[in-house]
Amino acid sequence: MSDSNTTDITNPSTFILRGIPGLEAAHVWISIPFCTIYAIAILGNFTILFIIKMEQSLRAPMYYFLCMLAVTDLILSTATLPKMLSIFWFNSREINFSACLTQMYFIHCFTMMDSGILVAMALDRYMAICDPLRHSTILTNSVVAKIELAVVLRCGISALPYPFLVRRWPYCRTNLIPHSFCEHMAVVNLACGDTHLSGYYGFFVLFSVIGLDVLFITVSYIKILRDIFSLHTKDARLKTFGTCSSHLCCILSFYLPEFFSSLTHRFGHKVPLHVLVLIANVYLLAPPLLHPIIYGVSTKQIRDRLLKHFTRKGTYFFYPGTQALCRDGW
User: Fold this and answer.
1) Are 93 and 222 in contact (CB under 8 A)?
2) Which of 213-232 are b and which e, b meaning 16 or more Cβ less than 10 Å from the residue's Cβ?
3) CB of 20 within 8 A of CB of 277?
4) Distances (CA, A) of 92 to 17, 27, 68, 173, 291
5) Which residues pair with 130 in a beta bridge?
């Protein structure tokens, strides 16, 4: 299907993604940081999963939620970046209509899932700091599993209307999507007729799902900070606050790009299109990249296990007799 196909597309079989509109000549150069981000995200999240699986001491609610966050970030980045890179490298811009709807569903589902997991982690931090004596008795493995199941069901069901609404609209303008992935409103804007229902549902999800998540996290941290500042010594306050630093950084890395992206798309009418698309890409790519880095660097338990594992492997590789020497008392 050619780029000039702009009429009689009532039921398009394919859409054409433009990549970064206005920056097509620089696609190969843009692909370098995108590919690097994808490689780091894959390596980082798999490393987090590997460390938690190998270390029995990390079998705690926070690390179960972190595993779920890593899996979610892997799926979210894999749902978008391979197609982006195929556009940048091979000019493979066509995407099947059903594949486009599937990508749209995955983006919304796993973005909301990231938000839901951050809420669950806020609950874990609240229980650990404000009610430590009951933390292990309330957040048992079965309760953690139920929380994770609730997050999956909420996000899976909430994201379903997006592709169903997009599928029911007739398309009679063009099949060119001015984006690097199947962004919901970018696809809806190609439809004919009254598509306000899609916009209304997007606002409903924004306020009822993401908005409530932000509210819950805010309330949790107000209570956490109140308890932290009630501690008598500065060292105790800093040590307790340090247990929340990784989670707070992840919250900022997720919600700030989303907030900025939503504002620019709704009110930045004079912002160039390629800037809007780049901002949307940053919003999708930043969390999978930053989450494993944040937890790998700032969480002592994970950092120590990671260093211990690679130090041991390096020692055995360079000095095969080390294990025997240690056993003999050297």
Assistant:
1) no
2) bbebbeebbeebeeebeeee
3) yes
4) 9, 12, 32, 22, 30
5) none
Q: Residues 6 or more apart from 54 whose CB is under 8 A from it?
A: 305, 309
- Would you put residue 22 in left (φ > 0), alpha (ψ -120 to 50) or beta? left
Q: Which amino acid is at 114?
A: D
User: CB neighbours of 6 closer than 8 A, spacing ≥ 6?
Assistant: 173, 174, 175, 176
Q: Which residues contact 19 (CB under 8 A, 6 or more apart)?
A: 27, 84, 87, 88, 93, 180
Q: What is the pLDDT of residues 170-201, one digit of tens each?
A: 887 788 999 999 988 889 888 887 888 988 99
CA distance 209 to 213: 6
Name the residue among 295, 237, 259 with its Cα closest to residue 69: 295
Q: Burial letters for 283-313: b for 16+ Cβ neighbours within 10 Å, e otherwise? A: bbbbbbbbbbebbbebbebbeebbeeeeeee
Residue 166's nearest CA partner among 77, 249, 80, 103 is 103
Q: What angle do CA 258, 79, 93 make, to 5 degrees?
A: 100
- Over the chain (330 residues), the average pLDDT of each successive run of 10 is 48 87 91 95 93 85 94 94 94 92 95 95 93 90 95 96 90 86 89 86 89 94 92 86 88 86 70 86 90 84 76 53 40
Amino acid at 198: S
Model pTM? 0.87
Query: What pLDDT score does 313 carry?
Result: 58
Alpha-carbon distance of 116 to 209, in angstroms, equals: 9
The predicted-structure confidence for 112-169, as pLDDT tens digits, reads as follows 999 999 999 999 999 999 998 898 899 999 999 999 999 999 999 999 999 999 988 8
pLDDT at 266: 67
Which residue in 169, 200, 204, 203 sits closest to 187, CA to CA?
A: 169
Which amino acid is residue 9, in one-letter code?
A: I
Tell me the longest C-alpha to C-alpha distance in the chain: 81
